[in-house]
Amino acid sequence: MKVVTRLHDSPRGRWTYSEWRPAHLAAVVELIWQTEGTTTEPQDRHYPTPTIELLVNLGPSFRLVEPAGAEVFETTWLAGIQHGPVVCEQPPRHGVLGIRLTPAGAYALLARPMHEVSGLVLDLHDLVGRAAGELATRCRDAVTAEERFRLAAAWVSARVAWSRPVDPVIAWAAAQIERSGGAVPIGELRAETGFSKARLVAAFRDQIGVAPKLYARIVRFGRVLAALQGGSAPLADVALAAGYYDQPHMNAEFREFTGLTPRELLSTGPPFLEGLGEETEHLPVRRSA
Length: 289
Description:
CATH class of the largest domain: Mainly Beta
Order of helices and strands: EEEEEEEEEEHEHHHHHHHHHHE
Shape: globular
CATH topology of the largest domain: Jelly Rolls
Low-confidence stretches: 271-287
Helix content: 25-40%
Number of helices: 11
Strand order of the largest sheet: 11-8-5-10-3-2-1-12
Number of strands: 12
Mean pLDDT: 89
Strand content: 15-25%
Radius of gyration: 19 Å
Distance between the termini: 5 Å
Largest sheet: 8 strands, antiparallel
């Protein structure tokens, strides 16, 4: 079990971040992560990604500012694929375990149309019943991050073992969007699958959570965030490399997905992908076998 742990220490706060990528669940879980520590910032912001985040609160509660959904999170909650920023009021000291699900994993785990959670942040109990409390109890009783990761993986495995999988045609189409960085023309996917526009959109919304065009935009946006996080290339070059027509096109996308312009986001200082498994400001990395 290869767990990577990093220590973040800056004026923004001091916390540890650990993550594990369970190979045996790669089709349904991208990674399982945990963060514990203190923060000086009253709000926590996250931006759209092509994944679904299941969260277990190990400490004080969070309060949702936007988007719509349950107002206060005491134990467990789930964020579907988002169309804009997620903003929470966070406590000075926090402890959270996250399970980052692929759309296929979330579809199997929830056993419901994924558009029902798209753009929302919901109490997990409202989606899976008392199983949410069982997950929270197991994680809170665990002593180490490694133990929590194993327990969380076992919980996911049990729930998806006999669930209905995503249609292979839709899984293929989503994979093409991801591999191309959101650049593949949706018309080409329709031609390859033989689906009509309406059928492809309906199946994507049901099994992925959003229409294929929006999914491609979110995947492309993720590439831009990663590029901004990792370098200092001019914004115009970043926009063209990601497949935008020009920088104003990218700026409009940023305002929709983050509520900020690229320059405003950069002015907040890295890491602006934190909580998504992308820490950059940290002290030495520790790996556990």
